[in-house]
């Protein structure tokens, strides 16, 4: 998931050298080279449960955090860097990255709300996505310990976005057919 604040900051930076007019609406930077983009089949593959809480898993989590931060993201799922293990990163306390292994959700009865979301695998796209306002999260940490907490606000939105990734679902699947069509057209043209 992308960081809206970072995007806003980037777009308000002073313009660099004058570019041809037809490029003005295109993003200034391309997607992170390590992050798979729409069209890669790994993004559509449901992730498999993690059973080995070993050093490889810790290394994968470290890589995910590093790449996510380089891309100014606030969340990342393993498929986005080509792994199909059930692990994702979301904003934790004080927005520090929180690693969730084998996460599941219980919806709390707080209602839904649409808000604009971006995705590091759909570079440059922002779409209104309806999410639960608060969810109960059950997961394991990197040593296999069970964790459970209530997520609200950005954290609730991020965990729903990342668990969608782990199930092979992207934000374009969560909007109307008309919006999806416009979004795909925008991606093709960018
Ligand atoms: Zn995403």
Structure explained in plain terms:
With 190 residues, the chain is of the alpha+beta class. Helix content is 27%, strand content 24%. The protein has a 5-stranded antiparallel beta sheet with strand order 1-2-3-6-7. It has a two-stranded antiparallel ribbon with strand order 4-5. The longest helix has 16 residues, at 55-70. It starts with a helix and ends with a helix.
Strand content: 15-25%
**Main sheet overview:** 5 strands, antiparallel
Q: Tell me the structural class.
A: alpha+beta
SSE series: HHEEEEEEEHH
Q: What's the name of the CATH homologous superfamily?
A: Peptide deformylase
Approximate shape: globular
Give unreliable regions as ranges.
Answer: 6-16, 18-27
Terminal Cα separation, in Å? 19 Å
Oligomer: single chain
Number of strands: 7
CATH topology heading:
Peptide Deformylase
Total domains: 1
- Supply the number of helical segments: 4
Main attributes of the structure:
alpha+beta; binds zinc ion; 24% strand; Peptide Deformylase; two-stranded antiparallel sheet
Summarize the structure.
Helices cover 27% and strands 24% of the residues. The protein has 190 residues and is of the alpha+beta class.
């Amino acid at each position: 998931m992308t960081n809206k604040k970072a995007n806003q900051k980037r777009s308000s930076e002073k313009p660099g050298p004058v570019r041809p007019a037809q490029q003005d609406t295109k993003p200034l930077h391309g997607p992170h080279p390590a992050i798979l983009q729409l069209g890669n089949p790994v993004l559509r593959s449901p992730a498999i449960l993690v059973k080995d809480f070993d050093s490889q898993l810790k290394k994968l989590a470290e890589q995910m955090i590093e790449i996510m931060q380089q891309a100014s993201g606030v969340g990342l799922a393993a498929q986005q860097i080509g792994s199909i293990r059930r692990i994702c990163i979301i904003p934790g306390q004080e927005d520090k990255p929180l690693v969730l292994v084998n996460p599941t959700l219980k919806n709390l009865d707080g209602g839904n709300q649409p808000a604009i979301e971006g995705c590091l695998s759909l570079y440059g796209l922002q779409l209104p996505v309806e999410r639960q306002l608060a969810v109960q999260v059950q997961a394991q940490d990197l040593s296999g310990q069970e964790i459970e907490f209530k997520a609200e606000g950005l954290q609730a939105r991020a965990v729903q976005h990342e668990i969608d990734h782990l199930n092979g679902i992207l934000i374009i699947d969560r909007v109307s057919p008309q919006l999806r069509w416009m979004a795909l057209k925008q991606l093709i043209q960018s």
